[in-house]
Structures are given as C-alpha cells and as structure tokens.
Amino acid sequence: SSSSEKANRLPADVKPSHYAVTLTPNLEKRVFAGVVEITLQLAEAREDIQLNSIEIEIQRAVLTTASGELVATDIALNEKDEIATFKFGQTIPSGAATFRIEYTGRHNEDMRGFYGSTYTDANGKEQTMAVTQFEATDCRRAVPCVDEPAVKATWDVVIICPSDMIALSNMPLVKSTPVEGGLTRHEFDRTPILSTYLLAWTVGHFDMLEATTSDGTLVRAFATPGKGEQTRFALECAVKLIPFYNKWFDTPYPL
Questions:
Q1: Any idea what the Cα angle at residue 19 is, between residues 13 and 21, rounded to 5°?
Q2: FRET label pair with 60: which of 2, 70, 203, 221, CA 20 to 30 Å apart?
Q3: Strand segments (E) across the chain
C-alpha cells in the first residue's frame, strides 16, 4: 500500500477489547458530553497512543497501566487523517492498559456520527431527536476509538437524557435510574464483539409497538409520536421473518 494510505491507518499494535461509554446529550444546545473507558492491550512500549477522533474536544485523558496513572500532557488532532495523538511525557509500558477520555462533541446536521434530527409534532412544533449513523467511519465523531471495521470489541453503553425521553441502543436496557436535573441514566447490556460502525443509539420522544416471535424473540418498532401505527406492517413482517430465517440458516437469532 502507498505511504498516504498507511498515514491515516492506526498502528496495529494497540488493540482495544472493550469500550464503556457514557453519553449525555443536550438536544437544545446541540452538544453532548462523553466519557469513554477503553480496555487496551499494548504489544510493545511506545511514546504515544493514537485514536480516530474528529469533531470532538477532549478535556482530559488518563491512561492507567501496570505502573500507574499517566495523564496526557499533549493531545494533537490531525483533522485531515481524523487521528488524535496522545502523549504523556514519558514512555508507555507494554501490556494491559485502561484509557479514560472525557470529551464533548456536537450534534451536527450532516447525518454523520451522533447527529441531530428534527421532525414536526402533532401541534406543528419542531422537535429534535439525536440519532447515530456510524457507517462506514463516523463512530469517531461520537467516541474516540479505533474506528476500523476489522478491529472489533465489546461495548457497554450508558445514556443520560431527560427523563421524559426514550433512549435506545443495540442491546436491551438493563436498568434506568433517575439522576439529578430531571435526567435518567439508562444502562444497556454488553454488546457482542462488533465493528464500531455497527454500534447505534438514539434519544428522543417515540411511540412504540411490540410483538413476540413464535420462538420468543421480542421485536419492537419505534416512530416519532403519533406515527407508531405506521410501523405495524413492518413489525408484523419482522415477527414472521425472524423464525423463518432461524429455520433457513439453522441458526437462532443471537440477540
């Protein structure tokens, strides 16, 4: 491959195995706060750590290694290559590490990353929801990460949003806890090992219809308020298709 191709690829010897991300969207201000803890394996000692990141402002980054905590003293963002380089003022030892990054991002209107989407409610008033679109390389707009499809990991997603809103993600909701400021903390189950572009979440006001397949898989359809009934045909199709595919592929739906 050419050197320019290599330039915007991350080093292969920093391997994430798990991400725990907490997101607090502010739909009125079109910004969100995030904290991510990345479980890493470093194949060798190194001078810096690089992650994909764009449209994100990093407030603090702390790497915990076997020899203690290292605080990032220099964070350089290459906007062209969409890579953030973290330096700690000393060599980073090889082995297991946990990288905690506190950051803020924005709900852009480009339909990329963790973006803002508007719709008109039944009273003709404009409402906002926040939605993700990470394919092919836009997870880096929501979470600093190794945003390459071959580099798979598990994810724990937590979303803190206004208590009157619904938060959805890839996995079932484990628990919802009220927190101060009229917000609720929604914790989702751990994902299987997956590529970053498959990760998804959304926050907003939704109608919901649900049904269960003949073999017990719960299926839900969500729509903006007042449009829930328009999802009924899709829901009925999904409920029939999942058992069909289970038999066809001789593999039960895994989620």
A1: 140
A2: 203
A3: 14-26, 31-42, 46-52, 56-65, 68-71, 74-78, 83-92, 95-106, 113-120, 126-133, 154-162, 166-169, 173-179, 183-188, 201-204, 207-212, 218-223
Strands 14-26 and 154-162, how do they pair?
parallel
Q: Which residue ranges in the chain fall short of pLDDT 50? A: 1-3
What is residue 1's predicted lDDT score, i.e. its pLDDT?
Answer: 45
What's the CA dihedral at 114, 116, 121, 124 to 10 degrees?
180
Instruction: List the structure tokens of 199.
Output: 């990760």
Amino acid at 199: L
The model's pTM is 0.94
The residue assigned the tokens 């994810």 is 155
Q: How many Å apart are CA 149 and CA 196, to the nearest integer?
A: 6
Peptide bond into 221 cis (omega under 30): no
Count of beta carbons in the 10 Å neighbourhood of residue 225: 13
What is the residue-wise DSSP string for 91-142?
A: EEPSEEEEEEEEEEEE--SSSSEEEEEEEE-TTS-EEEEEEEE-TTTTGGGT
Amino acid at 230: Q
